[in-house]
Amino acid sequence: MNPKLIALVNGMETAEGRQKFQNNITTHINKLTCVDCGKETDPNKYKKQADKDEFYISGLCRKCQKLYFPPEPKE
Question: Does 74 fall in a domain?
Fold first, then answer.
């Protein structure tokens, strides 16, 4: 996890901290960069609509989404 992101998560105990966290996500979404790895991304090229939707919620690129939201184990 990106150290800046860790600091923002740790600061979410206050309203100001939560606002900083949300502002960071919004900035990355607007710039089309990943909130964690910082790489440029194009969610319009994602194959799954769910991955595209997740980018616009969390700001995480497809690669980082897999780290944060691993697939559920098959039974």
Answer: no
In a domain, 15, yes or no: yes
Domain carrying residue 10: 3-68
Integer CA distances (angstroms), 74 to 9, 47, 70, 71, in order? 31, 22, 12, 9
Compute φ and ψ for 74, nearest 5 degrees. -85, 140
The string of pLDDT tens digits covering residues 47-66 is 999 999 999 999 999 999 99
pTM, two decimal places: 0.85
Closest by alpha carbon to 53, among 63, 38, 43? 43
Provide the pLDDT confidence category of residue 32 given band limits of 50, 70 and 90: very high
